[in-house]
Amino acid sequence: MPSSKERPRTSRQTSAWEEAGGEFYQEGFQSDSPLDGGRRSDVEALLPSRQPQNNDTTDETKVMEELEAVKGTPEPMNKRRIERNRIRSQTKHKTSALAHFTLEQRKLRARVVSQWKQFFHFFVPFRSSMRQIEAFFGTGMVSYFIFLRRLLYLNLAISLLLFLFIVLPHLVLEETSTKSTVGGGESTAGPLPRVEADRSCNGTNVTVEFCSECYDNLVQNSQENNSVLDKIQAGFLGTNAFELTPLFYGYYQRDPLSFPNLRWRYNVPLAYLLVTLVHIFISFVSIVRDAAKGFQDSLMTHKGNFNKYCSLFFAGWDFCIRKASAASIKKRAIYHEVKGLITSERLKEERRNRTTAKKFRLYSLRFVSNLISLCLLAAAGFAILKAASFSLSKSDTVEEGFKQLLYEYLPSIVIILLNLFVPYLFMFLLTFEDYSPLFEDKMTLLRMLLLRLASLGTLMWSFYDMVQCDAPVTNCAGDGEECKAPVCWETYVGQQIYRLTILDFLVALVTTICLPIPRKLLGRCFASNEKIRGIVVATFNLPKELLDLIYVQSLSWFGAFFSPVVPLLTLVKLFLLFYVKKFYLSHLCLPPSKVHQASRTNAFFMVILLVSFCVVTVPVGFVVSDIRPSLACGPFRGLDFMWQEVLKTIEKWPGLLKIAEFMNTSAFFIPLIIALCIALYYYYAVGRANKALVATLRRQLVVEGKDKQFLLGQLRTYNGARDASTASAQESTVSPRSRITTGVRSN
């Protein structure tokens, strides 16, 4: 075996350095001999055992950072505990007094926050149910229930704001003025048709007091001789005795409320507007924060498509699953995911091989399909408009019992039916468009979202068309066939959203409990046939269920201004839906056959929730800023527009008025626009730099993977050469006597 002195010397290869975010990556090339003396000395110099030991200079801040890093390492608990004890056992070098005090404060805050989190962890709703769902169905399915819980928290915050600052002051404080007894609406011997009763409040010289008194008398007259069934019906409709209650906008007065034995006054209109702005702001911040977190999570996995099969096979398993049946479901879901990926690859290959005639035929089919989809959306909007108009026209007549209930609920019924059946038409059209499975899901969700938003937008337009009908300003309500605006149109809008919320919950109960039960029983008859059973038994459609939650929350945002009870109804509705959907998922339906990643699902649907938030809050802002309030009801009666209350309040405060006037000048807007442009460019530059850094790090990971493969190959070569040299050395050291003995035995 040649000695180290006899080895041929090789020139040291040039090292390439690559900068990555302030750190440097050294790419070294191996020499011909794995035991090259120069390279070996360099490597030995980098060994931890050859580094100078300085155990006395461990900084406390560094120790704390290392302890925090240990918590996030993917190691078993016992190994992390050993590492933690090793770090703690190091001799710490005391820092300065100020740094030591700051460090102790950080430790104290971290300990207090941790204890508070542990304390409140026991009060988190649905905690055990979430664990069961995650164990049986995986993280993708539990994302639906986490999203539901977030909306429940949001509606709880909105309900508390409305109750504490709007409802409660009217219940405990005193009014500063008494209502005047102005005649109007008192001459009716019995209940009149609603439109005719509203027109009875019109006159030549009407005032706010006249319209208010007339409206109160109309509501009181409608309550006469009501049976128990009528009262139950009024509860579902939000009319009669429920109309002048804190449930609706028309109950609240314009006059300020006074505190007992104090000179303070509670400005109800200003509080109404400020609470609306606050809960809209809270909702916006909550959505943006959750969406940003979802994007951060999804960004970690979005760029890994180049090794999607490897990621799916080796990192696609959900280790939260603890049940054999759930494991088989997860296996089937992964199977369908692989099948979908292979189908996508096949479709890509077919797309590349399409002829011009096939492309023309396919694009023609897609054009016709999208045109039919737009026609369906337009027809749905037209149906909602006609239903709202027909329901309002039936207010001219007095109906009894179920007929009146049907007329009042007609717009809500039409919207619910459209949301139930039109999506099936969209899915049927997609069978002719030949999209990839992933893009097909996105198109289905997009069309369903457009249907939901179009139905809400059409309903809002019907309200606007009803209010903006060129009625004379001197009238309390509409005065013609073309103008049927109610005497308190805000309460009318609140009643429609109130009914739609109740009906949507009842339909959810029917479609979740009543219909799947017979389908489940029928599926047991075909338990041996998986295909028929998959068709008969309902499947938990995760995207559709999430869209339903977004629709429910959109109703809550829009209805909170006109009916403060709508967020509370939504809160109760979401609470009951959690257990209903859990029972539906566990006992009545099949889990989805597609794999849904929790991070991507949350990010995508938070964006949809943000779009829905904008769609429903912009009309509320338009109502506040441009539309004239009713003369007969509400805290803004007598104003030209609701925002005028804020302007009047600002005029009473000279300092605030000067600030508002300055904010309307170019001296404020021009620097603000310049600052925003600079900030946008800064974040754009930071984003580009981060993107380039991510690309560099990805290339570095690929190069390091190749280096590891090369080193493993060199190690195997070296081990083989060492084993061969060891064997030859053993043969050469055998004594002659043993050779003779071996030869004799062989003979």
Automatic annotation (TrEMBL):
Residues 1-59, 723-747 are annotated as: Disordered. Keywords: Membrane, Transmembrane, Transmembrane helix. It is a multi-pass membrane protein. It is found in: Membrane. Its main location: membrane. The chain crosses the membrane at residues 151-172, 270-288, 367-389, 409-432, 444-464, 555-580, 601-622, 662-684. One of its GO terms (molecular function) is mechanosensitive monoatomic ion channel activity. Pfam families: TMC. It comes from the Eukaryota. GO terms for cellular component: plasma membrane. InterPro entries: TMC, TMC_dom. Residues 725-747 have a biased composition (Polar residues). Belongs to the TMC family. PANTHER family: TMC DOMAIN-CONTAINING PROTEIN, TRANSMEMBRANE CHANNEL-RELATED. This is Uncharacterized protein. The lineage of its organism: Eukaryota, Metazoa, Ecdysozoa, Arthropoda, Crustacea.
